[in-house]
Amino acid sequence: MSSIALSPAPLPLRTHAHPSPLLPPMSIPRHLTLHHRQSYHHHRRRLAVAAAALRQDIAVWTPAPLSFVEPAAKSLFHVTVDLSDSPDLAASHNRAGQYLQLKVPDSEKPSFLAIASPPSLAAGKGVFEFLVKSVAGSSAEILCGLKRGDVVELGPVMGNGFDVDRIQPPEEFPTVLIFATGSGISPIRSLIESGFSASKRSDVRLYYGARNHQRMAYQDRFKDWESSGVRIVPVLSQPGDDWKGETGYVQAAFRRAKQSFNPLSTGVVLCGQKQMTEVCH
Questions:
Q1: Is 189 helix (H, G, I), strand (E, B) or coil?
Q2: What range does the domain containing 198 cover?
């Protein structure tokens, strides 16, 4: 199957540090004792950390006010940043699946956030929308506690996003399977609302996993997504007694469907927990 992923890998988003060109290059001698190898790798890690810190210090940060902060589901929040004074930053979001770093007051550590809104929204309304999971003690928790008008700082838009050209034209890839869990639905929203000719394909399904109904975001958008050609399959791992849909994990729900696919004409989009992506890949 063709597999489309965030660049870098799906949530949680991570950076990979590389030695800075400002630091002296290092080479590995052919004959190193184990102690020397351990010392070398420890030194390389220290250089990588220093390089990452240097890049963060020289990164361009754009101040922007919040225009919307509201609960989306249990522990999840809708956050909208006003970019009307930063048109260049808004225009740099050109593909679903891209992300950026966001700094909040009183916290030195930025958060990596996937942009939930489609690029057209940034171009038209001049905003970035995010789906943020509030984690105790994190910068994300501070962000979710802010209010309209509070100013945050945004780093540049990063990543190549979802390469939908790999599943075009739609008649050659009639089947597209999308798997997302938790806040991993955030960049998937951007993908669906950006459009990838779902209505021209014979089978486009989104398996969306959450713990329970209260933790499932974007339910108000499901009808619109389905009208665009995407079938939504909610999967709850801790459902209530009144739940009649799929239960367990998304990979198990997919297996229970027991449908056969032509791997040469099927696209797969994965965004969520590592175990899910490994099983579904």
A1: helix
A2: 164-280
Q: What is the CATH number of the domain that holds 144?
A: 2.40.30.10
Query: Quick one: which of 73, 9, 68, 71 has its CA closest to 208?
Result: 73
Domain count, the chain: 2
CA–CA dist 233, 227 (Å, integer): 14
**Residue 5 to residue 162: CA distance in whole angstroms:** 6
User: Which pLDDT tens digit goes with each residue over 173-227?
Assistant: 999 999 999 999 999 999 999 999 999 999 999 999 999 999 999 999 999 999 9
End position of a domain, from candidates 99, 131, 154: 154
Q: Which of 126, 154, 182 is the last residue of a domain?
A: 154
Examine the domain organization and report whether 87 and 134 are in the same domain.
Answer: yes
Comparing 56-60, 140-144, 145-149, which segment has the lowest mean pLDDT?
56-60
Whether 80 is covered by a domain: the verdict is yes
Alpha helices in the chain (DSSP H): 34-58, 87-91, 119-125, 139-144, 185-194, 222-227, 250-257, 274-280
Q: pTM, whole model, 2 decimals?
A: 0.78
| Domain co-membership, 134 together with 175 | no
Which residue's entry shows tokens 């008649």?
Answer: 171
Bridge partners of residue 51, in order along the sequence: none
